[in-house]
Design goal:
single chain; 170 residues; alpha+beta
């Protein structure tokens, strides 16, 4: 993964990770959910995902009430939907993943599939968080909210936060 870290490659990692102690809604590990070595591995997976901007896309249980089979990706727009269904081939449900592209249809072209003005284009590992916090504290959030309609505010909020981040993140 290190060789792809600073590139525009779309990354998919899928498999049976067997971490029932991870709560995928809160992105946290329940220390009562498994042996200490497994809990440490689960924490390392969450750290790895955070460091590589990976999201987990399976949101339904794949064995009993647990989400054990995962799909990690750094580009949410390439995943249309994910489902799981029982199968006689395994004690885990089979995960079906629908992509918005066909990865086998054409030779790889180096096209940037995300907007360079998007948060994903910023290197938060080298961010000046002190300056980001100062800038965010100086924004007149109430004035900003009152300057637009309820429907317009999320886009204006995101644009404002992105602008602050662009100023303090390489």
């Amino acid at each position: 993964m290190e060789q792809f870290k600073d590139s525009d490659y779309d990354i998919f990692v899928a498999g049976d990770f067997n971490f029932p102690q991870i709560n995928w809604q809160t992105m946290s590990v329940s220390t009562s959910g498994g042996p200490p070595e497994s809990n440490k591995s689960a924490e390392e997976l969450l750290s790895f995902m955070s460091a590589n901007l990976l999201n987990q896309h399976v949101d339904v249980p794949t064995r009993g009430t647990n989400i054990l089979d995962l799909l990690l990706s750094n580009n949410d727009r390439l995943i249309s939907h994910v489902t799981a269904r029982s199968t006689v081939m395994s004690d885990h449900d089979m995960v079906d993943i629908a992509l918005t592209i066909n990865p086998t249809s054409a030779p790889h072209s180096h096209i940037n599939l995300f907007d360079p003005n998007d948060f994903r284009s910023l290197d938060f590992q080298r961010a000046n968080f002190e300056k980001i916090n100062e800038s965010l504290e100086s924004v007149d959030w109430i004035g900003l909210r009152e300057s637009c309609s309820f429907e317009e505010f999320p886009a204006i909020f995101t644009k404002t936060v992105h602008g602050v981040c662009q100023s303090h993140v390489p």
